[in-house]
UniProtKB/TrEMBL annotation:
PANTHER family: B3 DOMAIN-CONTAINING (PTHR31920), B3 DOMAIN-CONTAINING PROTEIN OS03G0621600-RELATED (PTHR31920:SF135). PROSITE patterns: B3 (PS50863). It comes from Rhododendron simsii (Sims's rhododendron). One of its GO terms (cellular component) is nucleus. This is TF-B3 domain-containing protein. The lineage of its organism: Eukaryota, Viridiplantae, Streptophyta, Embryophyta, Tracheophyta. InterPro entries: B3_DNA-bd, DNA-bd_pseudobarrel_sf, Plant_B3_domain.
């Protein structure tokens, strides 16, 4: 995606300050841009956790004078939301290339903190579940016992779906997604062989972000 980093390609850190609207944009240090990108600032960058289990693609745009560039766009906002970043969090950006960064997060206490703690459940899709599907997440406790949850796709569109929490012993806390799931299925053009990643958002107990992975087709 980008050229290989120099042997001593430096990391940089940012302290998140609410008054600077970090939820929408984050300024990349001017010195880092000047010394390391050498006029080759990428239009987009990838941000990853330390284990490569989560990845966000964010826009990189010039926001002022020379060498003033920022992370922004829908990808950055999703990163902030998914990781539940807070005022005075401390992020260390470790470049892998000029457009790929791994991040270490520290809380205001100075202690390292998981970048993302929302459980993610992958569900392979079959035609037989187009009207009703079953999710058996360890994250059942993340969802309240209300009758509906909101499924949110990558574009931010939301569908209300009825849920049924199975309480008998053999169900082991299984959740059935029922009425409304069919609309989500059809409007997101899900077909047999695709899979859905259910990201249970801790800060919003009845919201589940869903990423549809189009496996086996373009």
């Amino acid at each position: 995606m980008g050229r290989k980093p120099k042997q001593h390609y430096p990391s940089f850190f940012k302290v998140l300050v609410k008054d600077h609207d970090f939820a929408s944009t984050l300024l990349i240090p001017q010195a880092f841009v000047k010394r390391n990108l050498e006029g080759e600032v990428p239009a987009k960058a990838q941000i990853k956790d330390q284990n490569d289990s989560h990845c966000w693609t964010v826009e990189v745009k010039k926001t002022g004078e020379k060498n003033h560039y920022s992370f922004m766009g829908s990808g950055w906002r999703k990163f902030v939301r998914d990781c539940e970043l807070k005022d005075m969090d401390f992020l260390v950006f470790k470049p892998i290339t000029n457009s790929v960064f791994k991040i270490v997060r520290y809380a205001a206490s100075g202690c390292e903190k998981d970048l993302i703690s929302n459980p993610v459940i992958e569900l392979p899709v079959q035609d037989s579940v187009s009207e009703e599907t079953r999710v058996n997440p360890a994250a059942t406790a993340r969802i309240s016992t209300k009758r509906h949850v909101k499924l949110r796709n990558e574009k931010g569109k939301v569908w209300s779906v009825e849920i049924c929490l199975r309480t008998y012993p053999s169900a082991q806390g299984r959740i059935d997604l029922r009425y409304g799931w069919s609309d989500f299925w059809k409007q997101n053009k899900i077909v047999d062989g695709d899979s859905c990643l259910f990201n249970f958002i801790k800060s919003a107990r009845n919201v589940i972000d869903v990423v549809v992975q189009k496996t086996g087709r373009v």
